[in-house]
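A.,

Following up on our hallway conversation. Structure tokens first:
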């Protein structure tokens, strides 16, 4: 209970017994709060204390072990991927060979190849093939493919199924001839198809004496 009395003209605050009890509780609460804050700061300071050298070394070793395990797992995964790629390539090759056997049986198969020798008087652009009057291939060469032919490469330009007997082959070569002029030249030959696979080579060579290209057709059994 708080009473306000006037003494010598100055107001005075008189605190009764109930007021003293409230002030005591308030002081206790304040002291308890201060002690709690002190304890909290101490705990935070302890948590933020620097780690010991043993702890730091253990953490570093643990990180190195984790990195080594990750590298090993990555290496193992890469090996699995490479192995899978090889299996896919082998499978594609086997499927390609099987497809060729089904589409071009050995008893009726004829393969046509293009080769070049020197190539000083002729720069190949395209090759057109006709068999028994029917166009079966018209292949346009890139400069990279021509360079490969000049280095000794051989290109299989076409595969065909032919019955046993005689067949007429017409090959037309288009490109750039002597004196940087457009050049178009055809070659015709009768090929005899027997039992079993047959290979025909269309060879482009230089005729030095006449300074012009020459086209030769060879048959291989």
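Then the amino acids I'd put at each of the 221 positions:
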């Amino acid at each position: 209970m708080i009473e306000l009395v006037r003494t010598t003209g100055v107001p005075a605050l008189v605190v009764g017994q109930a007021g003293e009890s409230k002030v005591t509780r308030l002081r206790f609460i304040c002291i308890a709060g201060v002690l709690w804050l002190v304890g909290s700061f101490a705990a935070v300071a302890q948590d933020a204390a620097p780690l010991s050298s043993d702890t730091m070394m253990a953490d570093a070793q643990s990180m190195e072990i984790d990195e080594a395990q990750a590298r090993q797992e990555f290496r193992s995964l890469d090996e699995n991927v490479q192995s899978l790629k090889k299996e896919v390539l082998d499978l594609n090759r086997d499927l390609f060979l099987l497809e060729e056997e089904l589409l071009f049986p050995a008893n009726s198969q004829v393969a046509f190849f293009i080769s070049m020798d020197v190539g000083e008087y002729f720069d190949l652009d395209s090759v057109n093939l006709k068999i028994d009057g029917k166009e079966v291939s018209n292949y346009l060469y890139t400069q990279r493919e021509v360079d490969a032919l000049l280095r000794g490469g051989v290109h299989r330009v076409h595969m065909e199924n032919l019955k046993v007997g005689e067949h007429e082959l017409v090959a037309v070569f288009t490109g750039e001839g002597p004196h940087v002029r457009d050049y178009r030249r055809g070659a015709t030959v009768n090929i005899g198809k027997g039992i079993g696979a047959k290979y025909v080579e269309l060879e482009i060579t230089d005729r030095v004496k006449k300074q012009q290209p020459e086209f030769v057709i060879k048959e291989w059994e």
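The two ends are 129 Å apart (CA to CA). Curious whether your intuition agrees with the design.

B.
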